[in-house]
Input
Amino acid sequence: MNSNEKKIWMDGSIVDWNKATIHILTHALHYATAVFEGIRCYKTVNGLAVFRLSDHVQRLINSGKIYFMDIKYSKKQLEKAVIDTINANGVEESYVRPIAYYGYGKMGVNPLPNKVSVAIATWVWDEHLKREMHYEEKGVRLMVSAWMRIDGRTMPFLAKATANYANSALARVEALKAGFDEAIMLNTSGKVIEASAENIFMVKDSILITPPTSSGALEGITRDTVLTIAKENKIPYEIRDISRDELYIADEVFLTGTAAGIKPVAEIDNRSIADGREGLTTKQIKEKFGLVVYDRDDELSKKWLTFVE
Output
């Protein structure tokens, strides 16, 4: 599908991709006053389905609340808007990006005089899937960034806000320029938090471990999915702080996110993680995750998939 055929949902209307424009003085463009979500639509054995739609939309609403956003649409209306956007584009597997933002109006740091607008776009975003295939035998290479993750005393890290991702962008660019695939970010206490756009897990002595959201990690929906899969499959897990050097001697490390899926890690700071290949626990969770999102798990698929009709 070319850009002339694509559609975007904007404040209740489906508009052409090339006509989905905003004013150059839109508040969010200047002051990063926007919140967003990343959602996946999968082609399952029983048709197109959106994964954990209700949870993603609720997180968008929660993020907006943190930023005093008066989003004019109900949760049900936003969920329908996501489905309508997918239907309008006629694609199969896709990535969906809802965003709520303070629009054009009064300039200045205070966003409150301006209207909050909502837009939803969808596109085929498969770079991460290709990367997973490329690294099927050997995972991605990470480095610990010199940039610390934002602190809860400076920015609300529970909000999935565009402002937070300037921090992420600096870390990702630093890693890429140094020849790595992705960056790991520490908090101001020196503890491992997450990658620039993914949550992080490690496995040590058959125990799955991930940092707590209270330390600064995003309350990731794929992260929660992995923890649920671990519980359902009796994989022991802990939610606790992780030190940088613990990662170096982990048996396995992997990243999780809506865009990335589940991505095994081969190296951190030029130190190989075990033999540098996808570990058994990572592989087990990845396979179970695939069963869930493609409607092959009787319980969790039914709980988390919303079919596109």
Summary: The chain is about 30% helix and 30% strand. The mean pLDDT is 94. The CA atoms of residues 101 and 133 lie 35 Å apart. Residues 7-125 form a domain with the D-amino Acid Aminotransferase; Chain A, domain 1 fold (CATH 3.30.470.10).
